[in-house]
Amino acid sequence: MFFGYRTFKTAVGAGISLFIAQWLELDFFVSAAIITVLCITVTKKGSVNKSWELFLASCVGLLFAAVIFETLGYHPLSLTVFLLLFIPVLQKIKALKGIITSIVIVSHLYTGGEVTAGVLFNEFLLIVIGVTVGLIMNVYMPSVDEHLYQDQLNLEEKFSRIWKEYARYLRDQRIDWDGREITQAGNIIDDGKSKALRSIENHFLRHDNYFYRYFDVRERQFAIIERILPFVSTLDTVEEGKHMANFMEGLSSAVHPGNTASYYLKELYELKETFAERPLPETRAEFEARASLFYILHELEQYLLIKEMFKPDHDRTLTLKRKKRAYIRKRKEKANEKGRREEE
């Protein structure tokens, strides 16, 4: 399919509004379709808010136009006066997004050259039809939860790989890693937060911000991962670095929503004590290496403290574990299929 669900809803909604307005033999019936198009947004809350602004602005615009046109006449100066008075009022009542719809409706009065009860009722019906159909079309919003779970799994995979590469460098001074997981992780976090906000805006009664909190936590942790990269990449092989590598290796296997931070915090404090008991550095290079290691330890502590504050509910954790198993199984099946094709 070359068009999305929003395009489909917009097209169908515009057609329905046009049909109803034309069936009722309303003047300027095409305007009902225009209002419907303007009411359809990417979220339910956004649709309700915008529909209310369009409805309010259009009704207020009708009243303003009726008074001004009947008082000053139907000429360009009247329209200028209308806009000079009307726009500040829209700003005051926080309905400025409805200005386009209002001008469309007001233009009907200007074109007709008179304001009667029938004209006002015709315009009111156009507004009601357009807004109502727009709201109805926005009742259905596809869930993004599956995409969010997938982003969560992908992000944890990237985090795990980053920690393994940091550990590999500290232990073996390997420099063959291109660091692409860092860029990918940043993109996943940005995309995940955007989807999570959209998911929140699509629920009126369920105040579930789990995914937004999750990606917010990962964003703060990711900032730490980026900060320690220059310190990790400039460290020469030292005994303390190998201990740090072992710690990061363990950390790489614990990148998941479960609360393992307390265990690793305890291990980190023990590592700090071990480093503190070692003899003082004798050369400048040893001093700089020790300073870098303690800075990395400090940042790792912040990384774990951020994680400790995140408390996922039990159901979410079970769901993610189930999806993670399915994800791993699917990847293995793809790898096996690829292997069979290569053999053939």
TrEMBL record:
Gene3D superfamilies: Putative aromatic acid exporter, C-terminal domain (1.20.120.940). Keywords: Cell membrane, Membrane, Transmembrane, Transmembrane helix. The keyword Secreted does not apply. One of its GO terms (cellular component) is plasma membrane. It is found in: Cell membrane. The chain crosses the membrane at residues 20-40, 52-68, 95-113, 119-140. Residues 145-308 form the Putative aromatic acid exporter C-terminal domain. The keyword Isomerase does not apply. It holds the Pfam family ArAE_1_C. It is a multi-pass membrane protein. PANTHER family: MEMBRANE PROTEIN, MEMBRANE PROTEIN-RELATED. This is Uncharacterized membrane protein YgaE (UPF0421/DUF939 family).
